[in-house]
Amino acid sequence: MRFFCCACTAPCVRCSPRGRGVLLVAPVGVEFPDTREGVQPDLLFVSGERLGIIGDASLRGVPDLVVEILSPSTAGRDRTIKLELYERQGVPEYWIVDPDEGVVDVWRFGEEPSHERFSGTLPVRLGAEDVGVIDLEAMFAADL
């Protein structure tokens, strides 16, 4: 399992302060214990308060954030089946990154569900707290 010790791992991300949790990068399995359903997201974030759900080889529980990066073979599943699964399982926030369009769709589930589409910059939140911003223009730049 590959992981980073904060959400600030790329030059296009500015977050402060560091050390709010762990960003896990595929391949890492996620099992939702109540239903025994499993997935393997591209990226996921677990806040510092919930690190106990991370095991030696997988995560058992609900991550704070799940990120899927679209590809032609996964786009349909990411936008339907996984969207419904993450909402049903209580994932607080789900991002779908669309490199072809240069946008990120953000779903926040909970008492007041919302969906927003971002280009240019993407605000990064941990719960209700703003912790940084991702420069999407830099992230989607062709020379990366």
Produce a short descriptive summary.
With 144 residues, the chain is mostly beta strands.
Explain how this protein is built.
The relative contact order is 0.17. This protein is globular. With 144 residues, the chain is mainly beta. It is 12% helix and 42% strand. A hairpin with a 4-residue loop joins β4 (29-32) and β5 (37-39). The chain starts with a strand and ends in a 5-residue tail after the last helix.
Jot down its keywords.
seven-stranded mixed beta sheet; 3 helices; disordered N terminus; mainly beta; 144 residues; three-stranded antiparallel beta sheet
Quaternary form: single chain
Following the backbone from N to C, one meets helices and strands in this order, namely: EEEEEEEEHHEEEEEH
Number of E strands: 13
Mean pLDDT: 85
Helix content: 10-25%
Structural class: mainly beta
Total DSSP helices: 3
Major sheet characteristics: 7 strands, mixed
For the biggest β-sheet, the strand order reads 1-3-6-8-9-10-11
Low-confidence parts, pLDDT < 50 over ≥5 residues?
Answer: 1-17
Radius of gyration, whole Å:
14 Å
Shape: globular
Give the distance, in angstroms, between the N- and C-terminal Cα atoms.
24 Å
What fraction of the residues are assigned to beta strands by DSSP?
35-45%
Blueprint (SSEs and pairs):
Elements: E1 2-4, E2 13-15, E3 21-25, E4 29-32, E5 37-39, E6 43-47, E7 58-60, E8 65-69, H1 75-79, H2 81-89, E9 93-98, E10 103-108, E11 114-118, E12 121-126, E13 129-135, H3 136-139
Parallel strand pairs: 4-7, 8-9
Antiparallel strand pairs: 1-3, 2-13, 3-6, 4-5, 6-8, 9-10, 10-11, 12-13
